[in-house]
Amino acid sequence: MSENQNQRVPSSHAAVWDVVISSKKTLINVSIKELWNYRDLMLLTIYRDFVALHKQTVMGFLWYVIPPVVMTLVYKIVFGNIAKIPTNQIPPFLFFMSGIVLWAYFSACISKTATTFTTNAPLFTKVYFPRLVIPIAGCVSNLWQFLVQLLIFFGFYLFFLLKGTPISFSYRIIIVPFLILQIAVLGFGAGCWISALTTRFRDLQLAVPPAIQMWMYASCIFYPRSSVPENLQWVMAINPLVPIIEAFRFAVMGQGQVNIPNWLFSVAVTLVLLVVGVIEFGRAEKTMADTI
Amino acid sequence: MPDVISIENVSKIYRLGEISRSQLFGDIRRWVQRKVGMGQGFGNPVGEVGEGGASDVFWALKDISLTIRQGETLAIIGANGAGKSTLLKIISRITAPTDGTVRIRGRVGSLLEVGTGFHPDLTGRDNVYLNGAILGMLRSEVKAKFDDIVSFAGVERFIDSPVKHYSSGMYVRLAFSVASFLEPEILIVDEVLSVGDAKFQDKCLDRIRTLIKDGRTLIFVSHGAETVAKICDRAIYLKEGKMAYDGDTMSAIEEYYLDQYIDLKTLDKTRELMRESIKDKAL
What we know:
Chain A is mainly α. Chain A is about 65% helix and about 0% strand.
């Protein structure tokens, strides 16, 4: 902010102010430059999340592995063996696990971002720093757990591939990093918007977890899009997460289909949510200390 | 000396009804309270207490104008709910004013409540870096001052243990130490000196005096007139959100005490302390 303070002309007439705080409502209250100045805070927050997660857990790292695998087995039994939901030639285990792992990352990003103001209120009401640092760090912290789970998924994937299951490995896999980025941005953008709204409407805090769960049921996690009845296909078309998960399954396992217009729509929705979310977040930042 | 803070006609209004209009329960509670005549609004955001009943609007600050020059040590005094914390929160960018403008030159460091942002599972070392970053320092800056911070706090032996095993004294010393070595151009100190033992309090005061000597601007909030008299050369007295006095520390304290009906003997004691501190400064 003021590294060149010493060279400043010591005259109040030639005053150049570093910070102007006013009541004026500006549309964009977020500065990239300021975020950059706080880059070390971002890194240290990621480090803190990492340490805090691991401290005092005996099995530590295993907690990343057990839940998705157990959950996948449960899904396989309930949806695969009992409900007999088709999985488009993809081995049910891989089909369910891909959905579960991707969903877990999305849901971690959105719910962690959505509670930014409420969980950090004690800190936010005492020290100023660009608040966006916290949710950005949060989405990056979640990435670690997700990548471990993704690695486990690819372990099983390799197993099925070697076993000769009809899944194909192709160049299409290069799209995966982009899909992950889209999931993160979608969760972050939507979460920012929700967290801004929760500073004014506390009730949302209670409404968000069930809403996220409903979103999961509408997101092709344990069924392929092709098995959705015609009269409900519109839900698949407007849900920005559906094309991402379908694209992941298609890119990795070469089965199923991707609806390109739907995916472009999903990218557009992601970007709109990002912009609106960040703007709303920046506005809430100015007054959250009064309402939280 | 150039101006480092310029506060122009700053007001802050809290609308008691609107704060969480969405939260039905809060509204009902407030309504009942008003009817029953308990008066003081509960859902009030910063703990400032307004007169309930008459109006839903509460002026935490009303038309405050103030210019602070570089190197000045300004005390803000006033009763609970006079708007001291609100003013500090506006200066330190935690909340925006309802009206008016604040202009700031240089980095503002707040010692609002030491230890905010400490994580119990992290070691003292990690917390120093994390806390420094929260206060706006880069890692390299913290690194340069790390040894000073640790030795000032006197926790060298424990620096690599998680802070949850620290005694509360160690915890507070480390937190104060980080914040005071941040070396911002403007330092805001809010009641933090009430922490730690007497020895450490003296050490803190010395540290603050060093910062003042370095030409840093200090804004100090305290209920203890003695401490204010010892370090500040200017004071403003806030009364119900309005500026009641702006000038030399002693007169401000006098005004404040007269309003508070405090025994003037206490004031004499403060005056004596003040004389001593002036002598100190002269030496």
